[in-house]
Amino acid sequence: xxxxxxxxxxxxxxxxxxxxxxxxxxxxxxxxxxxxxxxxxxxxxxxxxxxxxxxxxxxxxxxxxxxxxxxxxxxxxxxxxxxxxxxxxxxxxxxxxxxxxxxxxxxxxxxxxxxxxxxxxxxxxxxxxxxxxxxxxxxxxxxxxxxxxxxxxxxxxxxxxxxxxxxxxxxxxxxxxxxxxxxxxxxxxxxxxxxxxxxxxxxxxxxxxxxxxxxxxxxxxxxxxxxxxxxxxxxxxxxxxxxxxxxxxxxxxxxxxxxxxxxxxxxxxxxxxxxxxxxxxxxxxxxxxxxxxxxxxxxxxxxxxxxxxxxxxxxxxxxxxxxxxxxxxxxxxxxxxxxxxxxxxxxxxxxxxxxxxxxxxxxxxxxxxxxxxxxxxxxxxxxxxxxxxxxxxxxxxxxxxxxxxxxxxxxxxxxxxxxxxx
Length: 422
What we know:
The protein is α/β, with parallel strands linked by helices and 422 residues long. It has two domains: 336 residues, Rossmann fold; 79 residues, Alpha-Beta Plaits (2-Layer Sandwich). Helix content is 44%, strand content 18%. The longest helix is centred in the middle third of the chain and has 17 residues. The two termini are 48 Å apart.
C-alpha cells in the first residue's frame, strides 16, 4: 500500500502540482445540467453472493455508455475561444473517442479522432456517427498516439488526452462525489484502472470527502502497469483482453503520481473472472457491462473474504462491447459453469442405445442440444460407437447427477466444458 502524507484539512495530501478536490468540485458544478447523474443502486443478489453490501454505480447509462463523457466534457468546457475554433484531437480505441466526439459536436467544436486500424468497426462507426472526423492508423494505440500527437502540432489542434490530463481527471472524479452523496456509508470503492484517469479523480475526491474510505483499483492481470508500479505485482504480458477499455500497458504520469499519494491498493484479476463478471451482470442485474466495467465485480468475486461485511461500491464504468464478442463471452462462461457441456460416451452400436441414453438424460430434466454418433475410431471395439451429447444443465450439481446416472447404467462418461458446439 502506498504511503500518504497528511495535512490539517483532510489528513491527506494530494500529489504536488496535481489535481485538487477544488478542481473536481468545480468540474462537478461545470457538468451539472449537461450530464445526468447516474444511479447508485444496492444489489441484493450480489450482496448475498459475496457477503458484502454491494452498490453499483451505473456509468454504463451515460449517453455513450461510459464514464469517459465526464472528463471529455470538462476538458472541452475549459477550452479558450481560439482553441474551440481551431478544434481538438483525441486518440482512443472507443469510449474516450465517443465522449469527445459527442460533446465536441454539441459545443460546435471540430473533432478529429485517431484510432488504431485494429479498432472494432462498430466503435469506429459510432464515433463517426457522433460527428467526428475519424482517422484509423497504426496497429496499436501507441502508434496511433504518435500520429495524433504529430497532427496536433502540425494542425494547431488541442490534444484531449484520455487520462493524462488534469481537467480530464477532475471530470472523472465527479463520479465519486455522486457515490458518496448517495451512500455516505460506503467503505470501499472498486475502480477499474487502465491509464489511471478514473481512479486518480476518484481518489482525489474520496480522500478529501471521506479519507477513511478505501480506494482500490482493479486491473486485468495481462495489463497491470499501475499494480506493478504501486505494489510490485507483475506488469502482465499484454495481448488480447476482454477488458480492452483498460488494456493499457503503462499508466499516465499524472494519474500514477496521484495514485502513489492517494490510492490504497490495486489488485489484478484474471480474464476468466472478468468474463464471468460480465455474465453475472447480465444474469443477475440484467445489465450490460463491458470488460472494464465488469472488472470491479470480478475482483469482488475473486476476493470475497477481503470485502465481506463492508459497504462496497462498484463502478460499472461502461457498457460498450461488440455483440459478436459478447456472444462468445456468454457461451464460454456457460461452459465454465457446467451449464453447457459435452458428454462423451463409448456405447454399443445397437438398437435402443440412443433411446436409453436420451431417456436417462431427460429423467434428470436436462436438455439435449446436439447429438453426434460416430461408428469409427482407432480405439473403438467391434460393434462399438462414440456418442457425443451436448447438453444444457443448471450447473455442476445437475451435471454430476447426469454423469452418475449414466455411469450406473454401465456407460463410461467423460465431460468436456471446453469444446464449443459443432
